[in-house]
TrEMBL record, chain A:
<keyword id="KW-0472">Membrane</keyword>
<dbReference type="InterPro" id="IPR043127">
    <property type="entry name" value="Sec-1-like_dom3a"/>
</dbReference>
<dbReference type="InterPro" id="IPR036045">
    <property type="entry name" value="Sec1-like_sf"/>
</dbReference>
<keyword id="KW-0653">Protein transport</keyword>
<dbReference type="GO" id="GO:0015031">
    <property type="term" value="P:protein transport"/>
</dbReference>
<dbReference type="InterPro" id="IPR027482">
    <property type="entry name" value="Sec1-like_dom2"/>
</dbReference>
<dbReference type="GO" id="GO:0032580">
    <property type="term" value="C:Golgi cisterna membrane"/>
</dbReference>
<keyword id="KW-0813">Transport</keyword>
<comment type="similarity">
    <text>Belongs to the STXBP/unc-18/SEC1 family.</text>
</comment>
UniProtKB/TrEMBL annotation, chain B:
<keyword id="KW-0636">Prenylation</keyword>
<keyword id="KW-0968">Cytoplasmic vesicle</keyword>
<dbReference type="GO" id="GO:0005484">
    <property type="term" value="F:SNAP receptor activity"/>
</dbReference>
<dbReference type="GO" id="GO:0016740">
    <property type="term" value="F:transferase activity"/>
</dbReference>
<feature type="domain" description="V-SNARE coiled-coil homology">
    <location>
        <begin position="138"/>
        <end position="198"/>
    </location>
</feature>
<dbReference type="InterPro" id="IPR045848">
    <property type="entry name" value="R-SNARE_YKT6"/>
</dbReference>
<keyword id="KW-0472">Membrane</keyword>
<comment type="similarity">
    <text>Belongs to the synaptobrevin family.</text>
</comment>
<dbReference type="GO" id="GO:0006888">
    <property type="term" value="P:endoplasmic reticulum to Golgi vesicle-mediated transport"/>
</dbReference>
Length: 647, 198
């Protein structure tokens, strides 16, 4: 008999685990056949096969490395829609979306008797009728007893960081900024988008084990998401009351218990409240990587071997190889510096390299000492001392090797980033945009930068101009605008994003004006000194060493107002929803809130994320998680604006 | 070039009464549409109120041009277009629509009518047909009758107002605008920019 069980979360919370590592825990449990992992077990894990679809792959890959999968006994992992040979004595764990195609394939697998037993885990809840399809196929294949478990995992979201998640990567154009804001959208399209977004958010809250207090602005997609989300949560809670066995937010759930005093605040923001940040040229490591390199789901893809080496006559030119690097939680350098300004990163990589070389030399020195035959009295007496040293050096070799691997990784990545910075003069763009966004005095004319053939790609110039247009108090005069447009066209820019931004600016609340980008101020600290020495990997000559003053971007400011209960015209009008109050919503939250989830409908980026992280660091004891419907860099966003601006 | 709205109103003693309206909001995104529609209604009503009997005017506001004709019998019509759309064709449209309307709907219903009670169905079709200005086949006829020097040109909405009158107050009091639209306007105003929604 196929049993359908809903997931109950029974994990323990450690001090700082208000984080989306919960998804990782949920995944690990799933891979352990949905039994809680036994602690300190020396038993070998049961060997199993993992079958996923592309959605499942995107969810698992940022969280679990191949090694971690192997540690849990996954000997083989395969895509659902691929040719798979039968492995009749091995259990299979499936992790897929409950789509018609996938269900058909599962039924086919059952009929073909591929595996010993089947653990079916659905990323989002499976419908009753589809469940019955599986049951019938199992019955027909005489495989009922082999379908061991069927679970709704409620994991339909992707966790990229402890404090960051996105909704999906596959098919993200269905819920993109373009999809939500295009003019020719029908009611039914919007409904479908809302359902997709809310399904993921619902999964998120089930995994978190908490029912939030919801705040949203009025009159946009964020409000619609909030309303639909509240309705969904409300109805599921009512179901829970009726059927305690199947409840998703049970009282015995430790997480729910924790949150009953301080429920998290769920703030929905609409991308349209801040259109400048997604276009902004940035200066921090992770955001830069996302902007200039090919980076998604925590993996950087780069081309290598593109050096200007002269090849001997007649020889084939050196082929460029593609390398990929995973930037993970285990990478200490990454965790420390992903939010650091780039010059600091360059300096730190250099430091790490120097430290590593010193350690490497020490090992070499000890090895050469050990090579002495013993004629030297002094050498013999040093021996025992050095044996200890050598032992420790040898035992730290794996550590050293790993360190070397990471240093190489970051050297390569940072070098690639630096190349972009230098060739496009990204420091100039960054500084100028900061000044535009904070309404500081400008030392250069915008027209000069646009017309400069050496500064930036046409896209860089378009980004800069759009930020100028978005943040300007007064729209430029007709004649000025014509001048800018001509300069942009001469530089090779595509002007269609401007059409859309004009319309956006004409309509939108003018609350997101320059003053509200905070008093950032960028302090230049002169040109680099230390890193300019000849031994440095990074020649930062000509690149400004800019330091960022902490300031709140619009989304951060909105969160601050709501979390600290500050009165502000922008947020005073926000709606308030409490899914636990089944009849109307009365506010009874007087104490300042300690945890929040900020979700941007219409897409977000790493700059916004980093700004929230910096803000949270400055607030003792508060936890903030950032989520967005899709993650885009400026190039991808401009492409969408361009589509929207086509007439 | 584009037409956004076409409305027929009755110019009462103190205020304008909306009789029928058609809108093409297909160039606005999903969440903008209801506010845009409300503002177009508000604007059309205000323009009719401030236009004297028997006159024509064009009011420019940001990217939009509102063309109005109020007849001597106080029946008026407003079409809101973009700046590319030929002015002459707009006035042809207004004439045509008013003529047809006055034949189909009894004048006794004008002072108190509203879009639900008024039985005139052709407005949507006219709006859609005139999206392509070449539909204005009667252009030559209008050219003869229309004296362009008599069309008053206003460069902003504000020039329609009387001394001491504020657009803010009118927005706040308007029954054509829902709370949300009023809120939008309020915030826009705070930042020293005109009502750019239109």
């Amino acid at each position: 008999m196929v049993k359908r069980r809903k997931v109950k979360e029974t994990f323990t919370l450690t001090g700082d685990s208000y984080s989306v590592v919960l998804e990782k825990l949920a995944l690990k449990r799933m891979l352990n056949f949905n039994a809680p992992p036994l602690k300190n077990t020396t038993a070998e894990p049961v060997w199993k096969v993992l079958i996923y679809d592309r959605f499942g792959q995107d969810i698992i890959s940022p969280l679990l490395s191949v090694k971690e999968l192997r540690d849990m006994g996954i000997t083989l992992h395969l895509l659902l829609h691929s040719d798979r040979d039968p492995i009749p004595d091995v259990p299979a764990v499936y992790f897929v979306m409950p789509t018609e195609e996938n269900i058909d394939r599962i039924c086919q697998d059952l009929r073909n008797q591929l595996y010993e037993s089947y653990y079916l885990n659905f990323i989002s809840a499976i419908s009753r009728s589809k469940l019955e399809d599986i049951a019938s196929a199992a019955l027909a294949a005489n495989a009922v007893s082999q379908v061991t478990k069927v679970f709704d995992q409620y994991l339909n979201f992707i966790t990229l960081e402890d404090d960051m998640f996105i909704l999906c990567h596959q098919n993200k154009e269905l819920i993109s900024y373009h999809a939500i804001n295009r003019a020719d959208i029908q009611d039914t399209d919007m409904e479908a988008i809302m359902d997709t977004i809310v399904d993921s958010l619902f999964c998120f809250f089930v995994t978190l084990g908490a029912v939030p207090i919801i705040r949203c602005p009025r009159g946009n997609a964020a409000e619609m998401v909030a309303v639909v989300n509240t309705v969904e949560l409300e109805s599921k809670l009512r179901e829970n009351l009726r059927d305690a066995r199947n409840s998703l937010f049970t009282g015995d759930n430790m997480a729910a218990g924790q949150f009953s005093f301080q429920r998290p605040l769920f703030v929905l923001a609409d991308r349209n409240v801040d259109m400048a940040t997604p276009l902004h040229h940035t200066w921090t490591y992770q955001a830069l990587i996302h902007d200039v390199l090919d980076f998604h789901l925590n993996r950087v893809m780069m081309e290598e071997g593109a050096g200007a080496e002269p090849s001997p006559a007649g020889a084939r030119p050196k082929k460029k190889s593609r390398k990929s690097y995973d930037l993970t939680a285990a990478d200490k350098f990454w965790q420390k510096h992903k939010g650091s300004p780039f010059p600091e990163v360059a300096e730190s990589v250099q430091e790490e390299l120097d430290t590593y070389r010193a350690q490497e030399d020490e090992v070499k020195r000890l090895k050469s000492i050990m090579g002495l035959e013993g004629e030297d009295e002094g050498a013999i007496s040093m021996l025992s001392d050095n044996t200890a040293k050598l032992t420790s050096a040898v035992s730290s070799l794996p550590e050293l090797l790993e360190k070397k691997r990471l240093i190489d990784l970051h050297t390569n990545v940072a070098t690639a980033v630096l190349d972009h910075i230098k060739s496009r003069k990204l420091d100039v763009y960054f500084e100028y945009e900061e000044k535009l966004m904070s309404k500081s005095t400008l030392d250069k004319s915008l027209l000069d930068i646009i017309s400069d053939p050496d500064a930036g790609t046409p896209e860089d110039k378009m980004r800069l101009f759009l930020i100028y247009y978005i943040t300007a108090q007064q729209a430029p005069s007709e004649s000025d605008l014509e001048q800018y447009k001509k300069a942009l066209l001469d530089a090779g820019c595509d002007l269609s994003p401007l059409n859309y931004i004009k319309q956006w600016k004409a309509f939108t609340k003018m609350a997101a004006t320059p003053a509200n980008y905070g008093n950032s101020g960028v302090k230049p600290m002169g040109l680099f000194s230390r890193v300019m020495n000849t031994g440095s990997q990074f020649v930062m000559e000509g690149v400004k060493n800019l330091v960022l003053k902490q300031h709140n971007l619009p989304v951060t400011r909105i969160l601050d107002n709501l979390m600290e209960m500050k009165s502000h015209p922008e947020t005073d009008d926000y709606r308030y929803f409490d899914p636990k109050m089944l009849r109307g919503s009365e506010r009874y939250n007087i104490t300042p809130l300690i945890s929040a989830i900020v979700f941007v409908v219409g897409g977000g980026n790493y700059i916004e994320y980093q700004n929230l992280v910096d803000y949270t660091k400055s607030k003792q004891g508060k936890k903030v998680v950032y989520g967005c419907s899709e993650l885009f860099n400026a190039a991808q966003f401009i492409k969408q604006l361009s589509q929207l601006g086509q007439k | 070039m584009k037409l956004y709205s076409l409305s027929i109103l009755y110019k009462g003693a103190t205020k304008a009464n909306l009789l029928k309206a058609a809108y093409d909001l297909s160039s606005f995104s999903f969440f903008q549409r209801s506010s845009v529609q409300e503002f177009m209604t508000f604007t059309s009503a205000l323009i009719v109120e401030r236009t004297s009997q028997g006159s024509r005017a064009s009011v420019k506001e940001q990217e939009y041009l509102c063309h109005v004709y109020v007849r001597n019998d106080n029946l008026g019509a407003v079409v809101i277009a973009d700046t590319e759309y030929p002015q002459r064709v707009c006035f042809t449209l207004l004439d045509k629509v008013l003529e047809e309307f006055s034949r189909q709907v009894d004048s006794i219903d004008w002072p108190s009518g509203n879009p639900e009670t008024i039985n005139y169905k052709a407005l949507d079709i006219h709006l859609s047909k005139y999206q392509n200005p070449r539909e204005a086949d009667a252009m030559s006829k209008v050219q003869a009758e229309l004296d362009e020097t008599k069309i008053i040109l206003h460069n902003t909405m504000e020039s329609l107002l009387e001394r001491g009158e504020k657009l803010d107050d009118l927005v706040a009091k308007s029954e054509h605008l829902g709370n949300q639209s009023k809120a939008f306007y309020k915030t826009a105003r705070k930042q020293n920019s005109c009502c750019e929604i239109m």
